[in-house]
Amino acid sequence: MNDVAVVGFAQAPSVRRTDGTTNGVEMLVPIFTRVFEQTGLTKSDIGFVCSGSSDYLAGRAFSFIAAVDAFGAFPPIHESHVEMDAAWALYEAWLKIRMGEVDTALVYGFGKASAGDLRRVLALQLDPYVTAPLWPDPTGIAGMQARLGLESGRWTEKDLAGVAARSRRDAADNPYAQVSGETDVDTLLAADPVADPLRAHDIAPVGDGAAVIVLASAERAREIVDRPAMISGIEHRVDSAALGARELTRSPSTELAGRAAGAGDARLDVAELHAPFSHQELILREELGLGEDVRINPSGGALTANPMFSAGLIRIGEAARHILDGGAERTLAHATSGPALQQNLVAVLERG
């Protein structure tokens, strides 16, 4: 089966509100242009297109069809879509290239959270019989998860503030971040809780954004870039959707996906973890066995920019960028979907 590499990545700035339509076209067109300039490819060179978004978030059926206008559906294209983060669209595109059906693919994700009430929309993904009728939002569920960790001694409020402070500091060099800046742990801990014990800095900002990645077979990738970011392993697993049926301070699906992807096979330089809440980074680090020698979320991570349905894809793009730019030899990317780290995807990338 063909090896697959990331050869291009671009993202739109994550912002609190955009004036465009909910189909993402206005955000996508500029980044499609940018990624084609990076790779020297054109639309006719792309064998497969796959996207990730949500009709629930857009507030209308088949909104992803309208988003295809950003790429152009004529002449006819080979296109697909997943109703979740575009990291899972990348998995589908990876399979297409692995099986030899195409040798290039373009993957994109977009979300315009400002068009509605994100917390209410995401409550719809919960168990429809027991949990969803109570309308618990993701922040409230994450607050319960964080509280369980505090009471069990797995982490402290100072640990959470430390994650947030480091993320904001690192995001100062990221022009696409929504939140950034120097701060210290004591200042953050002085703030009032929003969803006890979580404070505002522990919670990813709500924002609009989009991202795109170009994949290619190993042979084609070496014709496009000097240092392709080869996907040496990728896997996704899922935990129970019933919140009471799993230990919320753990993430078995992340551990299993990481092991299957080869996360522990050799030293990692960088890990981009999709942790929308500060305590979830601590869970992910433990499940993936990441030591102090691994740089975590140098982009600032989801705590500084978390555009729905593209934040996970951005983690893969950021992890690949370090290899494409020559700053790393081996990196890891993680994406999550669902409440309290329910579904998790892990990819390991190496210099090709």
Q: Secondary structure elements and their pairing?
A:
Layout: E1 4-11, H1 25-39, E2 48-52, H2 55-58, H3 63-67, E3 79-82, H4 86-98, E4 104-112, H5 118-122, H6 138-152, H7 157-171, H8 185-189, E5 193-195, E6 198-199, E7 208-217, H9 218-224, E8 229-238, H10 252-261, E9 270-272, H11 278-288, E10 295-296, H12 311-324, E11 330-337, E12 343-351
Parallel strand pairs: 2-3, 2-4, 9-10, 9-11
Antiparallel strand pairs: 1-7, 1-8, 4-7, 5-6, 8-12, 11-12
Explain what the structure shows.
The chain is an alpha/beta fold. It has helices at residues 25-39, 55-58, 63-67, 86-98, 118-122, 138-152, 157-171, 185-189, 218-224, 252-261, 278-288, 311-324; strands at residues 4-11, 48-52, 79-82, 104-112, 193-195, 198-199, 208-217, 229-238, 270-272, 295-296, 330-337, 343-351. The strands form two sheets. Strands 3-2-4-7-1-8-12-11-9-10 form a ten-stranded mixed beta sheet. The protein has a two-stranded antiparallel sheet with strand order 5-6. Helix 4 (86-98) packs across helix 12 and helix 7 crosses helix 11 (278-288). The radius of gyration is 19 Å and the shape is globular. 55% of the residues are buried.
